[in-house]
Write a structure and sequence with these properties.
Oligomer: single chain
Radius of gyration: 26 Å
Strand content: under 5%
Largest sheet: none
Structural class: mainly alpha
Length: 194
Amino acid sequence: MEGIGGDGASAAAPVNQWLNEFSKLYQFYLDKTTPHAVYRWIGTVVLAVIYALRVYHVQGFYIVSYGLGIYLLNLLIGFLSPLVDPEVESSNGSLLPTKGSDEFKPFIRRLPEFKFWYSFTKSFCIAFGMTFFSVFDVPVFWPILLCYWIVLFVLTMRRQMAHMIKYKYVPFSFGKQKYGGKKSYASGSGTRGD
């Protein structure tokens, strides 16, 4: 009886070791892509175009595309939403700092950019893989799904924009903010009247 369990464990050990090494290598390369946001998003756009061409070419898998669209909309809402919702926080207390030890906290997303990109890319990979299995090609009238998704997108984004306006936050930052204060005369090339 002891020999039966030992054979299965010894056969699984190399597989577990290989999976462990593969996951470490995968995480290593994933970590190396973190600072290269522009190139990551370019790769994701290329992947999205390949997926769209695949769906167009096979003229099917519209329900997969609809599910992908709903999932991407959910990711976008998380990306645009603050970590702490002001509607919930305002009932617990003041949003403004009341003591000297309180500090201003900038906009922090509920879903960080890297996780947004990773989930976005992973969803396109999964949807692309699903296009190779005919079981996922459910016949539907795709214009209705497209119209429903557009209505859902518009209503959701309108609600999100109203939330942003009401609580005065902008989920995007475009580099370092520049202030138009006093000019420095030390760097000026003015002449002195000697």
